[in-house]
Design goal:
Elements (H helix, E strand, L loop, with lengths): L2 H20 L10 H17 L3 H9 L2 H4 L6 H18 L14 H11 L4 H49 L5 H55 L4 H8 L5 H6 L1
Helix pairs in contact: 2-7, 2-8, 3-7, 5-8, 5-9, 6-8, 7-8
Subcellular location: Cell membrane
Family: Belongs to the MotA family.
Protein name: Chemotaxis protein MotA
């Protein structure tokens, strides 16, 4: 669970409610079903129009990394790489074939299999970089959907407010109903802004940020496999790959 996502949303909503209460308002009055229907589904639909179909599906599927954390352990992956590098240097590349089945990461397994199959380092790099590019594009497209939705919701909030005002002005003969209609109209604006800056936009940006961690781990695996192919000294290889774990950055800080 990512406490910054869940906790941030909850804290913001609570603070909105407290502020409204201090001003003499009722937070429940900001929840307007028709405004939500006008703003939220239409914004998500508009974002779908601007996004490739496969990335729309990915956007919802990958929400799990926004509210949770990707199953990444770069330090453990680094140790696996070094262990395999040491074995390959002592016993030869073919000796590591028995270790492939013990690797959980399919990207890592595929790279090692290409190495055992005798592919040249340049060919391995080209194929693995292509796959990394596809992964990067996948998450970029998924995140862009939410960012587009976040950019769209304030506009649909304005549309909802205008629609509500049009209906309210048709009740000039009944000032009480007209006032209630105007108040309801502006809830659409609130819904649009909150959905944009508290939900959809932040979801997209956090998805992009976490995707970078996934990509960085893939890049470490790639460089590790190329290092094994070139029979690099495991100690030197460890130092080279340490930057991908963030440890070197922590030391510099």
């Amino acid at each position: 669970m990512d406490i910054t996502t869940i906790g941030g949303i909850i804290a913001a909503l609570i603070l909105f409610a407290i502020g409204d209460i201090l001003e003499g308002g009722n937070p429940a009055g900001l929840i307007h079903i028709s405004s939500i229907i006008i703003v939220v589904p239409t914004s998500l639909s508009a974002a779908a129009v601007a996004t490739k179909q496969k990335y729309v599906a990915a956007a919802y599927k990958e929400l799990k990394i926004v509210f949770g954390n990707p199953q990444l352990n770069p330090e453990e992956t680094l140790e696996q790489i070094i262990k395999i590098a040491e074995k390959a240097r002592k016993e030869g590349i073919l000796a590591i074939e028995s270790d492939i089945g013990n690797i959980d990461d399919p990207f890592f397994r595929k790279g090692l299999q290409m190495l055992v199959d005798g592919l040249e380092p340049e060919v391995i790099r080209e194929r693995m970089e292509l796959e990394i590019g596809e992964i990067e594009e996948y998450y970029e497209g998924a995140a862009k959907y939410w960012i587009t939705a976040g950019e769209t919701t304030p506009v649909f909030g304005l549309v909802g407010a205008v629609m509500g005002l049009i209906l309210a002005l048709k009740r000039l003969e009944n000032p009480v109903e007209m006032a209630a209609g105007i108040a309801g109209a502006f809830t659409a604006t609130v819904t649009g802004i909150v959905s944009s800056y508290l939900l959809f936009g932040p979801w997209g940006h956090k998805m992009k940020a976490k995707a970078k961690d996934i990509i960085k781990t893939r890049e470490m695996i790639l460089e590790g496999i190329i290092g094994i192919a070139l029979s690099k000294n495991p100690k030197m290889l460890r130092e080279q790959l340490m930057i991908y774990t963030g440890k070197s950055e922590a030391k510099e800080a």
